[in-house]
Amino acid sequence: MKRLTIQERMLIQACLSKDMNLTEIALRLGRNKSTISREISSHLIVKEGFILRDCIHRKEHVLCNSCKYRGACNYEKHYYNFEEAQKNADDLKRSSRRFTRLKSFEIAKINEVLLEQVRTLKQSLHHAYISNPDLSKICCERTIRRLIYNGFAAIKAHELRKYVVYKRDYQKPKEFRLRDISVLIGRQYSDFLKYCSTHKRENVVEYDSVIGKIADKHAILTIAFPKYKFQFGLLINKANPNDVLAKLKKLFRLIGTEKVKKIFPINLADNGVEFSYFDKIEIDDLGEFVLHTFFTDPYKATDKAHCERNHEFIRYIIPKGKSLDFLTQDKINWIFSQINSYVRKDLEDRTPYDLVKRKFGQEFLDKIGIFRVEKKKVDLREIC
Q1: What is the C-alpha separation between 217 and 87, in angstroms, rounded?
Q2: Can you tell me the distance from the alpha carbon of 74 to that of 20, in angstroms, rounded to the nearest whole number?
Q3: What is the H or E stretch that residue 207 is in?
């Protein structure tokens, strides 16, 4: 049986927060009930309480994830967290591969070569490996390098040629930021792909945010139409989901419900905190369902690669590290008007502006504040 993925662990936590039982979770994931039970029990997080006896609400819920009293409860709490579960699973997988299967006399032979040629003669590992054909009968060069990195060899990693010359990328701690994980039920990236496969003619819209300095109060909410390489932006308060929801609701009221159904039928955003209420745009002010929302898989910018790729043009005008607090909505409209009037080779030398105007009309472009710029006058210079 295939191991549980991080997406499946996210869905388990989302279902637990909706108070689903193990049978319902297993059916949704297409897994055996015992698999779900083992997963939860293996990665259970226990938080001690002041009251030692069992919680009176425990019988009503599978875990405390869905309990409305958990914030003020003094009993022992039991939680499931997909990030912790994934971290534990990854650690177990790595630890099982950390030890070598080589015999002691084989390691001794490798150490003999390493001490003589790498440490004393200052040769590279590749040179020492190639000049000793017997080593290839024991293992590959990469295995020897891993032995050195993991501390099983007689020499240290810093003794390798160029080891300290090249900068190595260290894994940064990952943090999931959606406030309510239950919104992912029916809105994961796999659900997005299934829906798109049966609605191929509908327009897909990708959302992201562009930030400047850490201390900035504002950011840009970018809205992209991948099919047309078109993108426009809204000025938002940084990391504020309420402001994002309010700005999108205001935009959709301006455009009109019927136009929104046609232009924004499928919407995809990432798991950033600013999209915590992204699912609420599905319903208009009259309570009518108007569009579908989905979320990318965690830590996967490639799920909305078109939106990320289009940010390159924004960085021509506003380089990374530059503050965005000087921006106004009019300036943002000017920036995206320049970008959307830029000729694209993969659009057969047409501009995104022309394609969107032909598909959705001039009225839509006027309402979002995007205007045409003459090709010879398109300005992508950095804003001073």
Answers
A1: 33
A2: 24
A3: strand 204-210
